[in-house]
């Protein structure tokens, strides 16, 4: 990990903002992949009874992260069902 002690304040703030933006993009991709794996029930290939179990046991996610993925997937499904939005 690089040392941040010598980074100027404005640069540090700019870099942090950019990292958060990148993180959100990656998080969105992870949630999309979780949703597709769940839809295809691919977690069963790893002897998991649910996507939550797969996230915890195989992916090593914390409970909060695994639950958040489930909630986001459910929200996306509700949006499609309620508003007819296709992903």
Helix content: 55-70%
Which structural class best describes the helix and strand composition?
mainly alpha
Unreliable spans = 80-87
Strand content: under 5%
Number of helices: 3
User: Sheet with the most strands?
Assistant: none
Regarding quaternary structure, how should these chains be classified? single chain
Provide the succession of SSEs. Answer: HHH
Number of strands: 0
Terminal CA distance: 37 Å
Cα radius of gyration in angstroms: 17 Å
Shape: elongated
Number of domains: 1
> Averaging pLDDT over every residue, what do you get?
81
Please tell me about this protein's structure.
The chain is an all-alpha fold. The chain has one domain (11-82). It has 3 helices and no strands. Helix 1 (9-40) crosses helix 3 and helix 2 (51-57) packs antiparallel against helix 3 (63-83). It is elongated and about 50 Å long. 8% of the residues are buried.
Note the main attributes of this structure.
0% strand; elongated
